[in-house]
Amino acid sequence: MPTQPSKDPTAMATSELETAWACSRVVHDFFHHYDHWRYGRMLDLYTPDGVWHRAGAALRGHARILEELERRPRNQRVAHVVTNLRVEPATASTASATYYLTVYRHAGEIADDAAAPMAGPAMLLAGTAGLVHTAQGWKFDSQTLTRRFEAGPAR
Q1: In what order do the strands lie in the sheet with 46-54?
Q2: Can you give the pLDDT at residue 7?
């Protein structure tokens, strides 16, 4: 029986490309705001009852997410670098995303215009997300971050 050629995974309809672009902006914007302590802007990228699974906790809703964010020490510099981002539109109003986050962290006070010393990334996280289209645009309905690598002695 002859096999049918598989669909080119890069061939997407214009609407799928628009969805993929908009959802990728949500992911990138979220971590940009995270690194700049803009918690209100982060919450704008979540549905009101969305859930963020991070550090072993399920943070459901804006109030719970904000409560956890406000516990972050302010005397640090953190950068989340998003890579390998893939967005898969499912329907006209839902999509899923997978990505990696390389996290760089410097603990302690440092001037805004100074370069923070570093030995390498603090960790690598694998991210998955469910996104939904709302009247205000695309938003996270769920996001899960799982540690894949942490700084420390190699084995």
Answers
A1: 57-60, 46-54, 137-150, 123-134, 94-107, 76-91
A2: 60
3: phi then psi, degrees, rounded to nearest 5: -90, 150
* Angstrom distance (rounded) from CA 137 to CA 140: 10
Domains of the chain plus CATH, in order, are 14-107+120-150 (3.10.450.50)
CA gap 130, 132 in Å, rounded: 7
What 3-state class would DSSP assign to 33?
A: helix
Nearest alpha-carbon partner for 45 in 65, 74, 71, 70: 65
Is beta strand 57-60 parallel, antiparallel or unpaired with respect to 123-134? unpaired
Per-residue confidence (pLDDT) for residue 5, from 0 to 100: 54
27-31-33-36 Cα dihedral, nearest 10 degrees:
-170
Q: What is the pLDDT of residue 70?
A: 96
Q: How far is CA 18 from the centre of its chain?
A: 19
pLDDT tens by residue, 112-132:
899 999 889 999 999 999 999
Q: How far apart are CA 155 and CA 151, in angstroms?
A: 11
Given this model, what pLDDT does residue 155 score?
63
pLDDT(139) > 90: yes
